[in-house]
Amino acid sequence: MNIQLFLIVLLTSTTFQLCGQDTIYYDIKQNVVENSSEATYYKLLEEKEFADSDRTLEKIYLTSGQIISFRSYIDYKNNMLHGKSKEWYPNGELKLVAFYNNNSLDGTFKYYWENGQLKYEEEYDNGILISGEKYDNEGKGDEHEEAYLIMPEFPGGDDALIFYLKRNIKYPKKSYKQGVEGRVVLTFLVNKDGSISDLKVAESVNEEIDTEALRVVSEMPKFIPGRQNGENIEVQFAIPINFQRSEFFEEEE
Fold it and tell me: Which of 251, 115, 72 is nearest to 170 (CA)?
């Protein structure tokens, strides 16, 4: 059973077929709406060629025209960041600047107070925090060990999650006999206490296989919650699971 893991950042999780530049409108609850009169935000998506790769550039604005974020993706469908990302406060002050290498923080990360003072300055090497400094809103700094942003984690890490899924998923017998194979993608919210909610099928194989994937994921133990700026946060999570008959025994039910 081939299992992959990836995360989806809220407000950037919708997948679109890009052609030139697309504009997508959102209401205050981050639901897609048809036109700007119903929107609170709008998103511009553009494909660009760079020396090292083709990328999708995403810019999110308030309907007032104030930019909220800029992100560069090497794989937009799977939410793989690569290159510079920036965010702004609604008042126009810069909020953060980050650099990603294949979806891992790499290099200097800076996060600012709303008054423009630097709040965090961290150095990363391929996703690993090397050093960090935290400042109060008057510019006084101290070293710190916890990164600004920590993603949720299954107890024991990704290897433990993969082991859990391999041990517990059983190939539905009817689909097995009919030779049905494919990938199910499930999305869910990891809550502040590590529990999961809003479990959904984002990509389907068939009802029987989808139901089995939902069953096993719904029974998972609590995650270690994500943290941002020292506080637990909610994070949208996605798990693609490939159902391949060659990796299961026929007698499994």
Answer: 251
29, 125: one domain: yes
Tens digit of each residue's pLDDT, the chain (253 residues): 444 443 333 333 333 333 445 788 888 877 888 888 889 889 999 887 766 667 899 999 999 999 999 999 998 877 789 999 999 999 999 999 999 998 888 999 999 999 999 988 988 888 877 888 888 887 776 665 566 778 889 999 989 999 999 899 999 999 999 999 999 999 899 999 999 999 999 899 999 999 999 999 999 999 999 887 778 988 888 888 989 888 765 444 4
Cα 54 to chain centroid, rounded? 20
Residues 40 and 131 in one domain: yes
Residue ranges making up the domain that contains 167: 158-247
Distance separating alpha carbons of residues 235 and 218, to the nearest angstrom: 16
- Mapped onto helix, strand or coil, the DSSP state of residue 37 is helix
Task: Assign residue 23 the CATH number of its domain.
Answer: 2.20.110
251: alpha, beta or left, given left = phi > 0 and alpha = psi -120 to 50?
Answer: alpha
The CATH code of the domain that includes 217 is: 3.30.1150.10
Alpha-carbon Rg for the chain in angstroms: 20
Farthest-apart Cα atoms in the chain, separation? 67
Answer yes or no: do 97 and 168 share one domain.
no
* Residue 147 DSSP class: -
Measuring CA to CA, which residue among 112, 79, 110, 76 is closest to residue 94?
A: 112
Backbone angles phi, psi at 103, to 5 degrees: 75, 10
Are 216 and 244 spatial neighbours (Cβ–Cβ below 8 Å)?
no
Verdict on whether the full-model pTM lies above 0.70: no
